[in-house]
């Protein structure tokens, strides 16, 4: 069986005017299993977003490879993106579109069968409770409403793999909780989810397996139980500190 | 490319464009009102000027040994026969007493004076002469001189007739060889020739103004809002995204252009704008398809060019930085139709925009060279395709893709100035443009341009943003060898610039008449050489270096890499010198001066080179030196000498501080 995501020796080097050559991601390997929530845990600047952007083919790897459902991210970027829904704090919505128009647009360009687009939009509007404001422009919605629209947009073309990059950044407690519940529902539906966060409690609650990413390197990758056994620590925060301090 | 995806994206882009209130206002509503209102204002202003000229009194004085006789002769000419100019019937010559006519002329008390030269009594043919003294840089004086000349000719004819009558010959001298001219061109021919020259520039202007807002929004705006990344993570291909955006800009450009043309026609039909009497535009069965064949690829090129700019920058604000060069870079070649003696069957057919301009001129004059029209359409389409390809590549550029700042813009200090420097220079350009129409004397224009626009606004920028003056204007001492090298670079620099001008002339030829006219305009009579030296050499060197290599370079030094910086600052310097055919050599000089500033970190050597260049150009024009007709080896030797001078500067370099690295 093909793994939803296979990452081998993935490296990304940037040229930064202030800092010179920066190795944001340094030869990392990991694999996601079908139907699991795979967590990427790391502090700000650890390389999480860069990794996920390479996975979504927005950035091109300097070295190494990414395969999504057997498709190479460099050779077959369109196929990779067709199988993937990407949601992050930086993937904004079009303020001048309504939620309905937004979902419809992303279903169409995501390759959802044209005849089923309307039914798909209706289903997502229903599922996320968007109905009452489905024809109001996004610029007039609250951040909680926008978040629901954004997730619906991510799911519009019904991809098997979903990538959430720090999805709760900037949300209040209730909206963040709602986001976590949505991810749990998606897992229950059999979707594979990559969930990047720096919030330990979210990772503990959501992730089947967790990769600790620090300064572009994966320091550990296992289930929460496995990580506990390896370090002797109970809380994820302590486990994280244990690994990060080990690197110095 | 999948048609379904492109269609969905195009519908989406158009929906966004229509819902963007600011863009709609800027692209449609404002021009619908502003353009005709401007034309109406121009019409009213022209009518007012005409009315004023119709009642102008041209004051003159007469001096010389037979001044009284000349004065009587002139006053005897019937008013209806001295109309040597285009002004109205109320305009009159009026003699005023002046003990020192030269001084009166300088003080503006008279418009001209006539010198009755030669002996007091007429001793035979060619013994006496009338010299008309007038400052050619004053419109009223120029008109008055023409009227005085016509009046004198009329007086001589009357005298010749009287003399013949005394000898028994009753001949109407002006009827001896009656000359009649007959214009065989129809109003449609004349209208076609006039419209053909303007049409491309007008169409291009309308398309650029209409589509610029949308173009900046579709990529640069999306980067800033974060929606581009959203789009790029979907299954849509880069080429599909670019195609949809290109089509959307194209559609907006065409629609706004058609709306504006419709609006102009409506204003014309309402009589608020009037065409000259007898003006007609010829439209044959072939005109419409020929114009479509030329203008559709042009619209595609405009859309592709705007998209490319939008795709190459990180933010909406940065995109605005490039709008002025894009406008000017597009409009300048669109004026190629004004160049006399440039046939469509020449190298101009390979220059995008300029080729359309010349082809449209030919079409409107009723000349349909279909093979060349097809070639022009092909070249323009190829240029549009090339620009679209570059836009696709730009969408894959990570550096520009993931840029964009969410921090609030600064309001003071260097960072604030850097974000607004181009707006300041756009305002300066507009001010110069307006002043060129309002100020009638060369001296007045030069003083206004240099002291008010360049120096005044540069100091205003420093004050507004509280910038350290010495650093802002790059007023740094340089080693003596650098000054020596700048001095030595003057002569080879001007020769190489003329060589560059000759090369550019291969593509966009300039008539010698036009060059002569410019040279004449730059050396008006009555201005002493030392004043000309100050006005043309010293003042521009000081004020323009402070503006371009001081303020502009300082404002852009962290935005562009040095090579692009030299080209950009040099190009802007060229555009500020208006005359279309001077663009290339002036921009070349601008690039040299910018490189000098980048290598030395100072504007002082540039001031020296600039002043020397202008002084030498003035001197060469005064002595009719054929700098643009030298042997090729002279240009080559000068280029070598110039390189040597810059090598000396490079060896002693003290680079401009705070620049971006030369390479990635």
Number of helices of chain B: 25
The whole-angstrom Rg of chain A is 18 Å
According to DSSP, the number of beta strands of chain A is 10
Ends of chain B: how far apart? 33 Å
Q: Return the structural class of chain A.
A: alpha/beta
What is the strand tally of chain B? 4
Shape of chain B: globular
Runs of chain B with pLDDT <50, length 5+? 404-409
Count of helices of chain A? 9
* Helix fraction of chain A by DSSP (H/I, runs of at least 4): 25-40%
Q: Please, what is the average pLDDT of chain A? A: 88
Largest sheet descriptor of chain A: 6 strands, mixed
Report the principal-axis shape of chain A.
globular
Describe this structure in words.
The complex is a heterodimer of chains A (248) and B (664). With 248 residues, chain A is of the alpha/beta class. Chain A is 37% helix and 27% strand. Chain A has helices at residues 48-55, 77-82, 99-109, 117-127, 143-155, 173-188, 200-206, 224-231, 236-247; strands at residues 5-16, 20-32, 37-41, 63-68, 71-72, 84-88, 161-165, 192-197, 209-214, 217-222. The mean pLDDT of chain A is 88. With 664 residues, chain B is mainly alpha-helical. Chain B is built from 25 helices and 4 strands. In chain B, strands 2-1-3-4 form a 4-stranded mixed sheet. In chain B, β1, α3 and β2 form a beta-alpha-beta unit. The longest helix of chain B has 39 residues, at 187-225. Chain B is globular and about 100 Å long. The two termini of chain B are 33 Å apart. Classes of the chains: A alpha/beta (248), B mainly alpha (664). Chain A binds chain B through residues 14-15, 17, 53, 56-60, 78, 81-82, 84, 86, 88, 90-97, 101, 105-106, 108-111, 114, 137, 153, 157, and chain B through 4-5, 8-9, 12, 15-16, 19-20, 225-227, 229-230, 232-237, 396, 398, 401-402, 660-661, 664.
